[in-house]
Design goal:
Elements: E1 24-29, E2 36-50, E3 56-58, E4 66-76, E5 82-84, H1 93-96, E6 104-106, E7 109-111, E8 117-119
Antiparallel strand pairs: 1-2, 1-8, 2-3, 2-4, 4-7, 5-6
Length: 124
């Protein structure tokens, strides 16, 4: 799916609402073979532009041609890679046994299709 039109210097969600680091968003993903829904917190917004010899380089927000979101999954209907908070080691249930959620940390996901998130807000 191509990136939907977006302002590369002003991050917004699918409904054109501003998003920022720390916001909780719903992200529709096709990670793996089947579609999934992930609820995640925005860890970082990386402002980028095309590098002279290919690839991307991180730049200040005012110079950006695009941006990427780094999301930390909170809940997902798909697979999430988990790490042990204490050692940073990959968590395997068959190796480490069942651990409480507070001992685990989800691997961040980098989102290139930046308009593929919807900011979640509490009901009032």
């Amino acid at each position: 799916m191509p990136n939907l039109e977006h302002d590369p210097q002003n991050p917004t969600d699918l409904l054109d609402r501003p998003i920022a680091v720390g916001d909780v968003v719903a992200w529709g993903t096709t990670w793996g073979r089947s579609p999934a829904l992930c609820i995640a917190r925005i860890e970082k917004i990386r402002f980028i532009k095309k590098a002279r010899y290919g690839g991307n380089e991180e730049v200040p927000q005012a110079q950006a041609d695009s941006y990427q979101l780094s999301l930390r999954p909170l809940k997902s209907t798909g697979d999430v890679t988990w790490y042990l908070k204490t050692t940073g080691e990959l968590y395997y249930r068959h190796k480490h046994g069942k651990l409480p959620p507070e001992e685990l940390e989800a691997k961040t996901k980098i989102v290139h299709h930046v308009k593929n998130v919807v900011k979640l807000e509490p009901f009032e």
